[in-house]
Amino acid sequence: MGLFSLNEDMKEQPQLHLRRLAEFMHCPFSAKEETDGVVDEILGLCSFGNLRNLEVNKDGKLLFGIENSAFFRKGEVGDWNNYLTAEMGDRLDKIIEEKFYGSGLSF
Questions:
Q1: What residue ranges define each of the domains in the chain, with the CATH number in brackets?
Q2: Are 92 and 7 in contact (CB under 8 A)?
Q3: Mean pLDDT, 10 residues at a time, over the chain (107 residues)?
Q4: Do 40 and 15 meet the contact criterion of CB atoms below 8 Å apart?
Q5: How many angstroms separate the CA atoms of 1 and 73, rounded?
């Protein structure tokens, strides 16, 4: 599946994909930022463990009473199989392809 295999690729090579994202946004990392460890610092701040443990994500709620913690599961590759059928995953992939069509992004 497109989105799910992308997530697996991102988890295996996070530095590569962060650099690609920065380039896509026309904000590539400078040589100094690379040397100073900015990429790894950003990855640490955006890590599943860090985001999951932010106070707002542990105790916060949306306007409709849904707890923010509902958006975090295990953060493991392939865990989506425990929540979605293959058919649901295919449908989600098609929606994402439609929404991002023409953006220059590919899944």
A1: 2-100 (3.40.50.300)
A2: no
A3: 64 91 95 97 92 84 82 76 88 89 78
A4: yes
A5: 19
